[in-house]
Write a structure and sequence with these properties.
The structure holds two protein chains of two kinds. Chain A is mostly helical. Helices cover 67% and strands 3% of the residues of chain A. Chain A has a two-stranded antiparallel sheet with strand order 1-2. The longest helix of chain A is centred in the N-terminal third of the chain and has 31 residues, at 3-33. Chain A is globular, with a radius of gyration of 20 Å. Chain B is of the alpha/beta class. Chain B contains twelve helices and 16 strands. In chain B, the strands form three sheets. Chain B has an eight-stranded mixed beta sheet with strand order 7-6-8-9-10-14-15-16, with helices on both faces. In chain B, strands 2-1-3-4-5 form a five-stranded parallel beta sheet, with helices on both faces. In chain B, α5 crosses α6 (199-214). The chains are: A mainly alpha, B alpha/beta. At the A-B interface, α1, β2, α5 and α8 of A face α2, β7, α7, α8 and α9 of B.
Chain lengths: 313, 426
């Protein structure tokens, strides 16, 4: 394999891994509730900021409390884990505020698109008020990878070590989630609710608890993605998660709504499509990525690995 | 329902009735427009007498992507106000801040609002891209504008009421290239990066590339990025395949800072020259220890040993701990200072007695362009078209502290552009 091709594959895999992580968050909620949580991008940002604060980062001059910091300075890996849990808890709050009331009233699921979008906007604005609009880099972020070289050279191609770590953790998270869904009792219950909520309820599955679990896990995935991305490329303001959220949404559709393997394949394909675009055309990068999405959907409306929906008559 | 019949209801009568109706409607519309024009004129603050205390409006980016620059500018304006509050003020001058955000519609809205409130002059907006949209509004209404940070080509040429204290990139940018080439005369392979969705960065890269061509260098790689980008793996690996010895970046603080960090992480060890968008201490937390050694040409140096710069530096340090001020803060101070001094000169000569606000704005613009000013940037004056004439520029190298989070722009060269003489600063 030529070095140039290997470089493209590495570049594509590095960004595709994060897209897959975000898309998986969408997938979990979509498969259980049949709705899309538009606050996912905001939860991604939140994960990054939580990690920053837990590592002892200080709020900048434009924030509500300039210079303020938590009285702890945790190592990156512990901060990342707690930040993911924190983002998961906020996702639960989003479920309580933006989804549960509509579900109780039997409202059209489309309405939850708007309420979740509103919840996302509120979260990002809160971040901006509290933390300011400036960019942040993790304090002693490089210590997280102490002892490792800054970049790895593989067959003439180069990739930053942090991106390899990001890709490995994304793959690990995806594999763990897949295994859990396949093997564990709760995972099977979640799949049962996704398949047929009424039948699952009749079989004694607490669908309310499953919904909350799906939100917790999807929030944790977003938080994990935000924290890892923050380590890799800093936090470029409260809105930095929104673009990842949008890309994750495209990956969700590309891979097939509600399909876990589809989210992974879609993420990698999207990353690869972006990596193939030369710099001269980089202004068209998002347009071309969405053109890939469009082309796939024209050829295969259910997405890459989505199931064809059969209408029951 | 049936129409009434009879002779009077014939088609010709209907036609003339319609004509009469149209004439009446036209007359009513004309009267309404005239009334609105008269009312509008009488409510236009420009037609009213100049108040005893005048207000200068500042529309700067307090929110959005350019917020980092806006906060620096707010600090510069506040310090200038603090300094000038102790001097004699024949005509008291107040400052009114308005958030011009980081986009064109917000800058236009802020300019309109401040003009309606009757400001005598405007400072802002923060970005060149915003200036091209908002300045024509001030120009049409005859309100003087002093741009504190617009460095793109063509800003003062928007109109006779537009000026700037920020020297344009074409004057400053190439100076850092000369420093890089002096440090390593063997440089022959240059890679260029620029944010293609930013008017300022695209204008600046054109200047950089022209300057490179004048020095016999053709970029081996030109990489286009976007302001919202944060992962530069693709453009960097593409550029590094060409083995550049010098990288030239035109971007803004956050994306540019990230780009520098990732360049270094991916193994680039050559020199880096950056443009004015990274001319802020706000890059330190982004690229941290990887900022070290970056070269930048500046219109301001904290090391300039003049009384006014010492005062500026002291006030800044009192307000911000031990840090040193950056160019954007110094230019904002300067914008306020030149307006203040021009206004007081005009007042002392009686040039503001018994005039309307509109006339005062016109005279203030003339006075502004006629004066010379001793500022933290050094002595400056204006060309008749509003372009700043500044005699001395600087090249600095970013020097980071051992903790990798704090740093400073260390002066390595000052250049007197009038004599074209350059050399290491004593």
């Amino acid at each position: 394999m030529s070095a140039a091709l290997l470089q493209i594959l590495l570049n594509g895999a590095a960004s595709g891994g994060v897209y897959a992580l975000v898309a998986l968050g969408y997938t979990l909620i979509f498969s259980v509730l049949g709705v899309i949580n538009f606050a996912q991008g905001a939860l991604f940002s939140l994960g990054g900021y939580f990690t920053f604060l837990l590592m002892g980062g200080r709020i900048g001059v434009n924030g509500a409390l300039p210079g303020w910091h938590l009285p702890v300075a945790l190592p990156f890996w512990m901060a990342l884990l707690l930040a993911a849990i924190g983002a998961g808890v906020v996702a639960l709050l989003v479920e309580r505020v933006a989804f549960a009331p509509l579900r109780r009233r039997g409202a059209d699921p489309l309405l939850s698109l708007i309420t979740s979008l509103g919840a996302g906007v509120v979260l990002v604005n809160l971040l901006q008020i509290l933390m300011g609009a400036e960019g942040y880099a993790f304090p002693s972020g490089s210590a997280a990878l102490a002892g490792l070289p800054e970049a790895l050279f593989i067959g003439g191609a180069r990739i930053r070590t942090v991106q390899v770590v990001l890709l490995l953790i994304s793959a690990l998270a995806v594999a763990a989630l897949t295994l859990w869904l396949e093997r564990s009792r709760t995972g099977q219950a979640m799949r049962a609710v996704a398949e047929d909520p009424t039948a699952a309820r009749l079989m004694g599955i607490n669908s309310g608890a499953i919904v909350r679990l799906a939100f917790l896990l999807s929030g944790m995935l977003a938080g994990l993605g935000g924290g890892l991305t923050g380590l890799s490329v800093s936090l470029a303001g409260p809105y930095f998660g929104i673009s990842f959220g949008l890309k994750g949404l495209a990956v969700l559709v590309l891979g097939g709504l509600g399909s876990v393997p589809g989210a992974i394949a879609g993420g990698l394909l999207m990353g690869l499509a972006e990596a193939l675009i030369p710099s001269e055309a980089s202004g068209w990068r998002d347009a071309l990525a969405f053109a890939v999405l469009f082309a796939v959907l024209v050829l295969r409306p259910s997405g890459l690995l989505g199931r064809r929906l059969m209408e029951k008559v | 329902m049936l129409r009434r019949g009879g002779l009077s209801g014939g088609p010709s009568d209907l036609l003339s009735a319609r004509r009469r109706g149209s004439v009446r409607l036209a007359a009513a519309v004309a009267a309404a427009i005239t009334a609105l024009a008269v009312l509008g004129r009488s409510s236009d603050p420009a037609s009213k007498p100049l108040p005893a205390s005048v207000t200068v409006g500042a529309a700067i980016a307090l929110t959005g992507n350019a917020n980092l620059y806006g906060q620096d500018q707010r600090m510069g304006l506040a310090l200038a106000q603090q300094w000038l509050s102790s001097t004699a003020q024949p005509r008291p001058m107040r400052l009114q801040l308005e958030d011009g955000a980081s986009d064109e519609p917000s800058a236009i809205a802020a300019f309109n609002l401040l003009i309606r409130r009757g400001v005598i002059a405007l400072i802002g907006p923060t970005l060149s891209q915003q200036a091209f949209a908002a300045d024509p509004i001030a120009q049409r209404q005859g309100v003087p504008v002093v741009a504190p940070s617009n460095t793109a080509q063509g800003i003062p040429q928007i109109g006779s009421f537009i000026s700037r204290v920020s020297a344009q990139s074409s004057v400053i940018a190439p100076l850092s290239l000369d420093e890089a080439l002096e440090r390593d005369p063997e440089i022959s392979r240059v890679a260029v990066f620029f944010a293609q969705d930013d008017a300022y960065s695209t204008a600046e890269t054109a200047i950089f590339q022209k300057a490179l061509a004048q020095r016999g260098l053709t970029p081996v790689s030109v990489q286009r990025t976007q302001l919202a980008d944060n992962d530069f793996q693709n453009p960097i690996t593409a550029a590094l395949q060409q083995k550049p010895q010098l990288v030239v970046i035109s971007a803004q603080a956050v994306d540019g800072g990230n780009l520098i960090r990732q360049l270094r992480e991916l193994g680039y060890r050559g020199q880096i020259v950056v443009g004015n968008g990274l001319n802020t201490p706000n890059i330190y937390p982004i690229c941290q220890r990887w900022c070290d050694g970056v070269l930048i040409a500046q219109a301001y140096s904290p090391d300039l040993n003049t009384p006014i710069n010492q005062t500026f530096r002291r006030l800044f340090q009192e307000a911000n701990g031990n840090s040193t001020p950056g160019q954007i803060t110094a230019q904002a101070w300067t914008a306020y200072q030149v307006l203040f001094e021009a206004l007081q000169r005009l007042q002392e000569r009686g040039g503001l007695d018994g005039v309307t606000l509109g006339e005062a704005r016109r005279r203030l613009m003339q006075e502004l362009l006629a004066g010379t000013y001793d500022t933290p940037l050094g002595p400056i004056h204006f060309r008749p078209d509003g372009e700043v004439v500044q005699g001395r520029f600087y090249v600095a190298v970013v020097t980071m502290e051992a903790n990798g989070r704090d740093g400073r722009f260390r002066l390595v060269r000052s250049i007197d552009v009038n004599t074209a003489a350059g050399g290491p600063t004593p």
